[in-house]
Amino acid sequence: MSTSGARLEFNEAWVDEVCAELDQCQLPGIALGIAVGGIPVYRKGFGLANIELPVLLTPSTRMRIGSTTKHFAALAFMLLCEDGKAHIDDPVGQYIPELNAAWRHVTMRQLMGHIAGIRDVYDLTFYLNGVSSPTTAADLLGMYQGLEQVNAPAGQCWDYNNGGYFLLSVAIERLANAPLEDVLKARIFDPVGMRDTLLRRSDNNFVPNSASTHMTKLGDFVAATGASPSKAELIQGFEKLHFGADFAGAGAMVSTVDDLLTWLAHMDHPRVGTAATWEAMKTPLALLSGATTGYGLGLITGDYRGLSTLSHPGGWLGGNAQLIKIDCLGLDIVAISNRHDVSAALLTNRIIDRIVAGLPPGAATEQMSATGAFCSQHTGRVVELRANGRTQIVSIDGCDWPFEWHGDGRLRPTSEWAFLNHELRLFGDPQCPDDIELVTFGDRDELSRLSNSDEDVGETISGLYVARSLNISCRIERNGAAFELVTLGARGSVGYGLEQLSPAVWRAQDKESPRAAVLRFNPKSLTFQFSTYHTWNLEFERVGPDGEACAQVEAARQCPS
Q1: Per mean pLDDT, which range of 376-385, 532-541, 544-553 is the poorest?
Q2: Residue 560 has pLDDT above 50, yes or no
Q3: How far apart are the first and last CA of the chain?
Q4: How far, CA to CA in Å, does 259 sit from each of 199, 246, 269?
Q5: Which residues contact 87 (CB under 8 A, 6 or more apart)?
Q6: Residue 224 clears pLDDT 60, i.e. is over it
Q7: What is the dihedral of CA 221, 225, 231, 233, to 10 degrees?
Q8: Average predicted confidence (pLDDT) for the chain
Q9: Which residues, 6 or more positions from 527, have their beta carbon under 8 angstroms from its beta carbon?
Q10: CA 234, CA 225: separation in Å to the nearest integer?
């Protein structure tokens, strides 16, 4: 749907006003580009490329774009389909036969559309081994060989899955008999004229003209030291964090605002890829229920205030990006941030609000806060409601999302996260509901309020546990008055503080990052289910300190990868 009365009223000064808070030279910031009819009309950088050096961001600075990489990887596979080397509905096991037989039948289309239902090995390794732990493509593929469990049957639900794009990358390399970076360069970047764009798997190498990413530390961004903090105090607000895993086609590209504006213009009249290929790329997939996901092959078809959009955001440790097209206005916007606390997607929405006239009013929202923890008897999903200032936080299996109260009494994600297609309905007192209903792409999941008690059940959950399919163990133990969980992975370890939500349900908060998970204990079977937003109900079994399973895991952990 598009708003018939919408009209573009571009004004450089208006865009400058939107970006005013970022117009500084002490901190990292954002690079921004706007094109109308394929012609750039705005190209600016705000802030530093690297907080350690006096180098400013520009539209020609190379920056990480995270998951915006995905539609480039999808196009690379589709070009191989055009060559007759593959078919979009071939099973992934046809190209990677060593995968676990339980799910190697899922198709390449399902992988690219995030409806394959498989586990995400990136999610697993980050939560169980740590974000920065060195993890090679061979390590990730080895994890997929042992994983028999899935999140859901293929086609049943939409679950954003970086691991699916890792498998896509492996398939592309085997079909092309070449590294993914060479395929992308030869088949896409060079023909389009994207001279500064490349696949950069690691931050350990040197790439000229590259910005650094900047992760805000936990807690306050900058200590309250007065109106004019020193350079040293500003630097203390950030830290350097890098992914240790090879993200390949899931999110390892670096590009520039200029190159991505060229790319968006190319999409209007593609020289790379047939009309049929681009139609497949842009067409949202459907679930078995018939509900559309809004997600094609690495591209999101959406609606912003009545405007039909084609987009894909991307995130990285210390940065993020947004690429968006509004064809009815001939409007293209690219924003790339190199700091964790600045949202490129939110900025682009604010720019659209400012330079597009005739849009209908935004959805009516209310200021209200709800609290409580809830669990589904059907799926095991756990949702926590918390207030963070004026923002309503909805934590789904440990992952916090900003939601807004709408006039119909329902909670929905803020505009930059609308593609998640969540809706929350509350029953009873809206500020302290008895039950809630989470609706995702039309699928309804009822959750009941968890009731905590003063009963000290911590000792009953203490012990050593193992996830057999992953060769990963973990230990739960008391530390003073609190309980902690420590994972013991083959490539690293992660420490979590445990917060009791009910006798059987606990929140596990990573001590060194915002990541959290949920544990659901079954004392009868001496197991617990480990869940994150992307990993559902991974089972850990309790074993004795000298148990055979633990010995196997410890032996595997000591072997060099």
Answers
A1: 544-553
A2: no
A3: 51
A4: 14, 23, 16
A5: 81, 108
A6: no
A7: -50
A8: 91
A9: 465, 521, 539, 540, 541, 542
A10: 10
In the chain, the amino acid numbered 440 is T
Judged on CB neighbours under 10 Å (0-12, 13-18, 19+), 380 is middle
Name the 3-class secondary structure at 481. Answer: coil
Q: How confident is the model at residue 555 (pLDDT cuts 50, 70, 90)?
A: very low
Beta-carbon-side half-sphere exposure of residue 536 (alpha carbons within 13 Å): 19
Give the sheet arrangement for strand 30-36, strand by strand: 39-46, 30-36, 331-337, 319-326, 307-316, 300-304
3-state secondary structure of 370: coil
Torsion angle of C-alpha atoms 381, 385, 388, 390, degrees rounded to 10? 120
144, 173, 236, 303, 470 from 139: Cα distances, Å: 9, 17, 34, 39, 11
Tokens representing residue 338 in the block: 């190199």
DSSP string, 178-202: S-HHHHHIIIIIHHHT-TT-EE---
Quote the pTM value.
0.92
pLDDT tens digits, one per residue of 138-182: 999 999 998 999 999 999 999 999 999 999 999 999 999 999 999
pLDDT band, very low/low/confident/very high, at 455 (cuts 50, 70, 90) = low
DSSP code, position 250: H
Distance CA 400, CA 126 (A): 17
Nearest Cα neighbor of 526 from 481, 456, 472, 462 is 462
Averaged over 385-408, what is the pLDDT? 90
The CA distance from 279 to 295, in Å, is: 12
Q: What is the pLDDT of residue 528?
A: 96
